[in-house]
Amino acid sequence: MLFWTDDRLWDDARTYQILFLGLFLVVGLGTRDWSLKPGMIAVAIATCVTTQWVMVGVRQKAEGRGQKAGAGEAEEAGGAGEERGGESGVGNWESGKFKAFSLSPSAFSLHPSSFSLPPLAFILSPAFLSSLPSALVTSLGLSILLRADHYSTMVFACVAAIVSKFLIRVNGKHVFNPGNFGIVAALLLTPDAWVSPGQWGEEGWYALMFLSCGGLVVGRVGRWDTTIAFLGSYAVLEGIRNVLLGWTWDVWAHRLMSGSLLMFSLFMITDPRTIPNARIGRLLWATAIALLTFFLRNYLFLSTAVFWALFALAPLSILIDAVFPGDRFVWQSRAKEAEEAGEAEGAGEGEMTALVT
Known about the structure:
Strand content: under 5%
Strand order of the largest sheet: 1-4
Helix content: 55-70%
Structural class: mainly alpha
Order of helices and strands: HHHHHHEHEEHEHHHHHHHHH
């Protein structure tokens, strides 16, 4: 269990994301004329947390069945394949083959007895608790960015966001940013969802708030390169267009000081679990997103260009990782916990947990 005095809590960048996104919600509700109901925020949080709990439970059961099947095969082979069978139970999920799944109703039974754990231990399992901050980050991000007329639309967006992390994966890495996936899914598949990029206006103190809070989070996860590459490339493109059209530079500054653009570049495009692992890959990827955002915004006149650009180019991260391999990001709190335990098995569990958050 995590407490406010636990160093692991404050070593985790997601803690600061939760605090700052919560602050943005309070500031937005208090200073901007948002059409956001407090009940919608509560629904988003409850849906993301519940969906995360269900998917972690399903994943654990699938891995458990795979491990048992592997152990049985090893026993029949005289023990020679025991290690190979144990690894295949986890690898099937991580490789995206999902061989550990059975589509029978019993395969998705989440009754505590199915896991041979006491009810409280099942509900508060370490895997779920370690991934809980990620679910809260997704729910707060959706509450800030997405608007809907019906609660069911917000529920759909939240479920799509969380489930995408577990089902759309390549080599153990989820492809799409969960919040971005939920937004795009709601915009495409529901009639009453919308995004208001101008909801923050262009007032300077909002930009200062985003830069200071977002800068702290980005600095802790070491992804300033992604933010600088995106904002720098986009600023250059807008500057060239500004000169060609003969506009004054206050127009250029006005377009770059959008609160939504800054939130995107500091909190969404820098998600360390979905962006390329190597620095050169992140620079290329962020620049490509800036180019597509510029085209969609200025030539197709999409006010939500940043979200569509990220969604369209998210799979490019997998290709870039293949060309420019790098170390995969692991949330520091889980890595530290495994290191303090001093056991190889604990370290493996820490990395596995980080992969699903």
